[in-house]
């Protein structure tokens, strides 16, 4: 049930945390290949959303983000929702409505949410991207830590330590179950939300776009804040690309100096696209000629082959 008071929208929800699993486990166990709703890991609760446009956290190419507060009735010991009225970012996919006869110029459109039947598959894809992105990043860190431990000389740089947001998929129902510990049966969700921990809440941390989805190199200039992190993340792409046999790597790296959000997992054209509307397959197949190796990549302890950065123009890809 949805209750609107001024600009605060209250939703009765079922919350499904996105689990953290090692990449090896995801690859080896077929039941873990994609994010699925686990009834045994479902939490009932209430979500309050500030839907005012003035307080909106932002609107990207595919999703809006509003501030919200999550309260779970039987909260987990850790993770998102472990604290009552935890501040969260509430994200939903949207589509653009342009006035009849107008050109599709930037800014000349109205944002509309999808119907639940169209919204939920998109949310599942977004959740699945986060489900894979976390293990892919940890996979790169495991390789880095292993190489450093084996090296006789320490690297001439400090390794930035980042992780992806804690997140979960939330379904809202028209009527709350009478028993908070009892899951609703036989009713369809009226809406869905992707909930994430709030980045940079009241602490002045900068939100930075490190690497664009259309590139495999840092988006920042060398004199800009965050450039060192951006070059390190480009190195993690190199590691992911090489160690997956050229099949996949994370792109659209963005967040602050500790927490990352809204990634894309770019896959080879021969693979199955399960990673969302931002996936650009051509980027994976041309990674070797577009990635420019940096000081992280070329440290001998990592044992990475230097990739030749090409200059030829690449086929244009639409998002």
TrEMBL record:
One of its GO terms (molecular function) is protein serine/threonine kinase activity. InterPro entries: a-kinase_dom (IPR004166), Kinase-like_dom_sf (IPR011009). Pfam families: Alpha_kinase. Signal peptide: none annotated. Gene3D superfamilies: MHCK/EF2 kinase (3.20.200.10). PROSITE patterns: ALPHA_KINASE. Keywords: Kinase, Serine/threonine-protein kinase, Transferase. Residues 29-307 form the Alpha-type protein kinase domain. This is Alpha-type protein kinase domain-containing protein. It comes from Suillus discolor.
């Amino acid at each position: 049930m949805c209750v609107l008071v001024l600009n605060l929208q209250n939703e009765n929800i079922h919350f499904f945390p996105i689990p953290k699993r090692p990449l090896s486990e995801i690859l080896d166990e077929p039941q873990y290949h994609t994010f699925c709703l686990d009834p045994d890991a479902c939490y009932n609760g209430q979500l309050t959303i500030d839907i005012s446009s003035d307080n909106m956290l932002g609107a990207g190419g595919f999703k809006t983000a509003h501030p919200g507060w999550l309260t779970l009735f039987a909260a987990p010991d850790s993770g998102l929702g472990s604290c009552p009225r935890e501040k969260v970012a509430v994200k939903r996919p949207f589509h653009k409505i342009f006035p009849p006869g107008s050109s599709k110029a930037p800014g000349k459109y109205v944002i509309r949410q999808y119907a639940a039947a169209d919204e939920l598959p998109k949310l599942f894809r977004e959740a699945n991207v986060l489900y894979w992105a976390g293990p892919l990043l940890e996979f790169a860190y495991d390789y880095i830590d292993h190489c450093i431990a084996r090296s006789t000389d320490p690297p001439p740089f400090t390794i930035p330590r980042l992780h992806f947001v804690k997140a979960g998929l939330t379904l809202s129902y028209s009527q709350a179950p009478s028993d908070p510990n009892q899951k609703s049966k036989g009713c369809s969700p009226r809406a869905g939300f992707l909930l994430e921990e709030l980045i940079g809440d009241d602490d002045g941390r900068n939100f930075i776009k490190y690497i664009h989805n259309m590139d495999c190199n840092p988006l920042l200039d060398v004199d800009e804040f965050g450039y060192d992190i951006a070059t390190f993340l480009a190195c993690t792409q190199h590691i992911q690309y090489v160690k997956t046999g050229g099949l996949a790597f994370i792109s659209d790296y963005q967040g602050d100096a500790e927490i990352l959000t809204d990634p894309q997992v770019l896959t080879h054209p021969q693979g199955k696209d399960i990673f969302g509307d931002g996936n650009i397959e051509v980027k994976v197949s041309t990674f070797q000629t577009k990635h420019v190796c940096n000081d992280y990549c070329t440290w001998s302890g990592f044992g990475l082959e230097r990739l030749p950065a090409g200059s030829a123009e690449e086929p244009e890809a639409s998002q």
